[in-house]
Amino acid sequence: MPERTTCGPSSPWQRPFVTIWVGQQVSQIGSQVAQFAIVWWLTVTTGSATVLAGATLVALVPQIALGPIAGVFVDRWDRRRVMIVADLFIALVSLALALLFIFGRVQVWQVYLALFARAVGGAFHWPAMTASTSLLVPNEQLARIAGLNQIMNGGLSIACPAIGALLISFLPLSGVMFVDVATAIMGIGPLFFIPIPRPPRATNRGSASVWSDLTEGLRYVRAWPALVLMIAMAILVKVALTPAFSLLPLLVRDYFHGGPSQLGAFEALFGVGAVAGGLLLGVWGGFRRKIRTIQLGILILGVGITALAFVPGHLFLVGLACLFTIGFAIPLVDGPFLAILQTTVPPDMQGRVFGVTFSLLSLSSPLGLLLAGPLSDRLGLPIWYAAAGVLALLLGSVGFLIPALLRIEAGSDAAIGKIRS
User: Fold this and answer.
1) Same domain, 181 and 284
2) Residue 232, Cβ neighbours under 10 Å: how many?
3) Is the pLDDT of residue 82 over 60?
4) Residues 6+ apart with CB under 8 A from 368
5) What value, to the nearest 5°, has the Cα angle with vertex 335 and ends 10 and 183?
6) pLDDT at 417 over 60
7) Are 49 and 165 contained in the same domain?
8) For residue 47, with 0-12 CB atoms within 10 Å meaning exposed, 13-18 middle and 19 or more buried, which class applies?
9) I want to staple 82 with a disulfide (CB 3.0 to 4.6 A). Which of 21, 43, 128, 316 is the partner?
């Protein structure tokens, strides 16, 4: 196996990274299309909102429970192999589902199990890919790569449901699952030939226990106040934002008096906004201090959500503009957030930090839904959107007044010193 060296600013990093990145995006398309097909099958077969909610919960549990543990192994193992095994595992789950559909033996519990297993693979794959990016891409380019990822996320949110619906109309569900297997193989292929650098300490962790690695990662996060603040802000934003999207069908139906086409227009404008925000971030790269780009994004997000709460029900086009604004803000928050972690967290700690962060952010989704449901049922849907928007505006404003948060990109040497002294 060739020797792995970390890519620097002068290294020819574009070709290997782009090759891996394109393969992973192809795999992501297949995964999202397969996910769409699975949810559609549950919808048609059961017609139960409880079943669909259960499917969402089943997919969240591995992300919440396994995130920190998966991060430990991402830091201990070869991240390239972690990505290969995770993708292969998800592909095998899709293959098993395809065979069940072919033989007509599919039951709801089997689909739940498949969703759970796919989420387990994702819990390992996401931190491995994110931590690998910082080893393949020069630090000064990470914000632009984050913008590129946000463009793809927005584009996929628009395209994958349409692709999934098209494939379902031409192929049996087993065929859609085979498409997922094929795209996974395309994503895995480049990983067999392109090395990913390993952090220096990753090769010397054999004497440390998994538990000690896990606690070291948790102590690292706790010992860095600015990181704790940034993660806490991200969690609060997600607690507010997740229900805002989950309740969108009800807002369209009950407040804007629309139907499926209006809901589709809302989702499409959100995706267009996300592509536009990602394109801006990819070209501009954000402010020199990435935390300022995050704060600006949170403020724009707050404006969009608050405006949506107060738009009169007959002004549907203004509601569309609000969804575009919300979508536009998301890349300005998510992209620099990941770029800060990638540039400031030591490479041999990134798997654990990403795992902990991913777990906490996933936990915020059910918490937000638990809060939003009763509040919206009792006080009305616009109340939640108003509360979520005001919270985002407050967070975006207060962040500019916290010196420790504004200096987060100065580094994490103090945290490293505390946990390794």
Assistant:
1) no
2) 12
3) yes
4) 238, 239, 240, 241, 242, 243
5) 85
6) no
7) yes
8) exposed
9) 128
Residue 331 belongs to some domain of the structure: yes
Spatial CA neighbour of 216 closest among 95, 338, 319, 68: 68
Alpha-carbon gap, residue 221 to 154, rounded angstroms: 30
> Which pLDDT band holds residue 355 (cuts at 50, 70, 90)?
confident
Query: What span, in angstroms and rounded, lies between the C-alpha atoms of 203 and 60?
Result: 31
pTM of the full structure:
0.71
Residues 259 and 332 in one domain: yes
The three-state secondary structure class of 128 is helix
CA dist 66 and 79 (Å) reads 17
Which CATH number does the domain housing residue 120 bear?
1.20.1250.20
pLDDT in tens, 392-409: 999 989 888 888 888 887
**Residue 5 corresponds to which tokens in the numbers above?**
């060296």
Strands annotated E in 17-125: none
Among all chains, which residue has been given the structure tokens 């890919």?
129
Q: Please check whether residues 139 and 56 belong to one and the same domain.
A: yes
Which range marks the domain in which residue 184 is found?
14-198
- For residue 180, what are its two tokens? 């997922």
Helix (H) or strand (E) holding 197: none
Measuring CA to CA, which residue among 19, 164, 187, 16 is closest to residue 87?
187
CA 372 to CA 166: how far, in whole Å?
Answer: 34
- Judge whether 207 lies within some domain: no
Burial level of 109, CB count in 10 A (0-12/13-18/19+)? exposed
Find, among 87, 72, 11, 133, the residue nearest to 359 by Cα.
72
Domain boundary among 198, 231, 249: 198
Region of 129 please: left (phi>0), alpha (psi -120 to 50) or beta. Answer: alpha
d(CA 10, CA 17): 14
Contact 367, 338 (CB under 8 A): no
| Domain termination site, one of 148, 168, 198 | 198
How many domains does the chain fold into? 2
